[in-house]
Specification:
This protein is an alpha/beta fold. It folds into two domains: 214 residues, 3-Layer(aba) Sandwich (Rossmann fold), CATH 3.40.50; 100 residues, Alpha-Beta Plaits, CATH 3.30.70.100. Helices cover 37% and strands 28% of the residues. The protein contains eleven helices and 14 strands. Strands 6-7-8-3-9-10 form a six-stranded mixed β-sheet, with helices on both faces. A hairpin with a 2-residue loop joins β9 and β10. It is globular, with a radius of gyration of 23 Å.
Length: 324
Amino acid sequence: MSNGIAVDVQALGKKFGDFTAVDRVTFQVGRGEIFGFLGPNGSGKTTTIRMLCGVLLPTQGDARVLGFDIRKQSEQIKPVIGYMAQKFALYNDLSAQENLEFYADIYGVPLRERNARVRELIEMAGLKGRAKERVSQLSGAWRQRLALGCAIVHRPLALFLDEPTAGVDPVSRRRFWELIYDLARQDVTIFVTTHYMDEAERCNRVALMYNAKLLTIDEPDVLKAKMPGMLLEIDAQPQGDAMDVLEAQPQVQEVVAYGHLLHALVGDDARETASAQLQAALEAKGVQVQTIETVEPSLEDVFISMIEVERRAQVRAQLTREDA
């Protein structure tokens, strides 16, 4: 890792029979970076993580994690990384302390360090005074932080988190991310998948997977700045009727519901006239328009737009093949 790269992936791919789960992805993750790996269910995120953790062998391509080749040195990777899945790998019949002691033993934490490390992680998880309670009696937030403690009991240099905050309340998610920042400040590389866009905003860089392909990778603010077109936020009722009208307008590239509002992306060539034209089209169909305002895109807007562009391209390619 003399070049500061913790994860180096080159044209990595995985097939299961005729099904392509990961299609020749290439990216790098720096040491101490918080790297967000995003995408819809089934896009290839978990398969990629399992290859990087040395659990699955790739069908093609190469990757190195902390300098180790995932094909030839997978057993050397496992002791120096941590892994935490959405379904926490905890033993419900054991206490919080016993879980930590078990994982400390599995990872070979020296006996002279073990007691101090377990006490440190119990405090980190907010379980001081509850360390003897069975895991089955703990809340989801406590179990989440305990699972993180088990994943880092051996002080790994890289931590892979696969949707670690799914089903956890917003306050607990915020607390969890404070712990992630603390680890990154200790030069631990964080590789995290999430469906929460507010969490993606916290990453140094994010990558978007869709249908096994890597669509983009960059800093969140850069991705938002590079989004083509103009985004309009529209308050109009009835919302369903408004969406139908907007989707029928030639200058509108896509429309998505955003709470009680609508976000409509229009092309750059329609910037000057789009607001007035859309308001007129909506009112002509009996839709009441409260406001139409230009807004900065969110990361969610960017990803929805990119996925829609890719989906349309795949549909066109399929139609072309069928015509041929």
